[in-house]
Amino acid sequence: MKRRRSALDPDLILSELAKTSSKWLDIKVFAQVESTNDLAVKRLSETPDDEVFAITADEQIKGRGRLQREWHSPFGAGIALSVAVPTKLFSCEVSAIPLLVGIAANNCLKNLGANAKLKWPNDLMIETDSAELKKIGGILVQRQGDHVVIGIGLNTDLQVDELPTEIATSLSLINIETSRESLIADLLVQLEAVTKLDSNKWLPLYLAVSSTLNTQVSVTRQSESIVMGKAIGVLESGELLLDTETGRIEITSGDVLQVRPSQP
Ligand code: BTN
């Protein structure tokens, strides 16, 4: 059942953040943008300063996903959040930042009681009762000079007829109700927390929630070549380690078009 969807209340986000020790309080809320990531990149190119800032919107009309895909963000039905963070604030390797953002967003979903998992590198997945994985959100991290722009999209209220694919879902479809304001505040808190994690800390956290580890996968690379193998680990750089018939190989996320489960 579709409900009337309301606009984000910026004061509510700030009052949620005031209950925490978060120092990431510069957050601008828009009704409609093309893409929050594009807006953050633009602001950084105009005024590159060293502060963290966040941009969110009720609706994106040109939301962008990884690998040049579109990201569907109808008004009031999801979270579209971009956070610009100086890379020097992170304790991990820069190439691993997208995976740490996955840990942060996954923590938020778990805080809501969802059975949340991460499909390598950082697709936000929900494991259903029949062990099926559905995508509830995604992450697009872009480097811009000395910063990363961290884009997080999360489906909160999308209904079945609004979902972009059959394997997508939303919080309301798994019977989780939450305010978008408190979810945005929690995302900021969890993101700030993961900046402090080095590889000794983040790797075990990541592996514990990975839906890819120890499964047979088929990786379609940008070159269109397909590699099959068993995912046996993740490196400090964020690369996925695959055991293939011809030996062990490392896969970088930039090299990948698709990671799918395959038959053993
Ligand atoms: C993916 O799974 O392909 C990544 C999706 C990332 C979507 C978010 S929504 C906020 C930010 N702005 C964008 O245009 N994209 C990201």
Tell me what the structure shows.
This protein is α+β, with helices and mostly antiparallel strands. The chain is 23% helix and 32% strand. The protein has five helices and twelve strands. It has helices at residues 10-18, 36-46, 97-111, 180-194, 199-208, and strands spanning 27-33, 53-60, 78-86, 116-119, 123-127, 133-144, 147-155, 216-221, 226-234, 240-244, 247-251, 256-261. Helix 2 (36-46) links the parallel strand 1 (27-33) and strand 2 (53-60). The longest helix has 15 residues, at 97-111. The relative contact order is 0.15. Biotin (BTN) binds at residues 35-37, 60, 63-66, 69, 71, 80-82, 123, 138-140, 151-153.
**Gyration radius, in Å:** 18 Å
User: What are the secondary-structure elements, in order, as H or E?
Assistant: HEHEEHEEEEHHEEEEE
State the share of residues found in helices, binned by percent: 10-25%
The CA-CA distance between the termini, in Å, is 40 Å
Give me the count of strands. 12
Strand content: 25-35%
Arrangement of strands in the largest sheet: 1-2-3-7-6-5-4
Unreliable parts: none
Helix vs. strand class: alpha+beta
Main sheet summary: 7 strands, mixed
The number of helices is 5
Give every kind of bound small molecule, once each: biotin
Oligomer: single chain
Mean pLDDT: 93
Tell me, briefly, the overall form. Answer: globular
Features:
23% helix, 5-stranded antiparallel β-sheet, 7-stranded mixed β-sheet, alpha+beta, 264 residues, binds biotin, 5 helices
